[in-house]
Amino acid sequence: MKIKITIAGKVLTANLVDNETARDFVSLLPLNLSLNDLFGREKYGDLPKALSRNGPRKNRYEVGDVAYWSPDHQFAVYYRQDGESIPSPGIIPIAKIDAGTEVFNVPGSVKMTIENLK
């Protein structure tokens, strides 16, 4: 299954990961989020509710990863690799963006819409 991400007039697609957290995320769609920048590597924002924590966790990320940070019920998109690891308890993968993550590489916050791709 794919999702559509619209940011700054550009449309990106992402493939959902097969886990409970990703399925829970899809139940929230469509979403309009304002994302803040963290460390010049990721944009993150608050989700309207907590998601399942039953997905596998990891402490490394790749450019294009869309993930869930469970301690604060936040969603993150990783757009630049800085070689740093993610602190415990790690992130739970939700999706992987196909291409175009450079659109996130702008200073400050961005507004984004996420929908099911029909």
Largest sheet: 8 strands, antiparallel, barrel
Number of strands: 8
- The secondary-structure element order is EEHEEEEEE
Q: Structural class, from helix and strand content?
A: mainly beta
Helix content: under 10%
Tell me the span between the first and last alpha carbons.
9 Å
Overall pLDDT score: 95
| 3D shape | globular
What would you report as the Rg, rounded to the nearest angstrom? 13 Å
Q: For the largest sheet, list the strands in their spatial order.
A: 1-2-7-5-6-4-3-8
Number of H- or I-type helical stretches: 1
Oligomer: single chain
Strand content: 35-45%
Ranges where pLDDT stays below 50 over 5 or more residues in a row are none
Give a written overview of the molecule.
This protein is mainly beta and 118 residues long. It is built from 1 helix and 8 strands; from the N terminus they run ββαββββββ. The chain has one helix at residues 20-26; strands at 2-7, 10-16, 31-38, 42-46, 65-69, 74-78, 92-97, 110-116. An 8-stranded antiparallel beta barrel has the order 1-2-7-5-6-4-3-8.
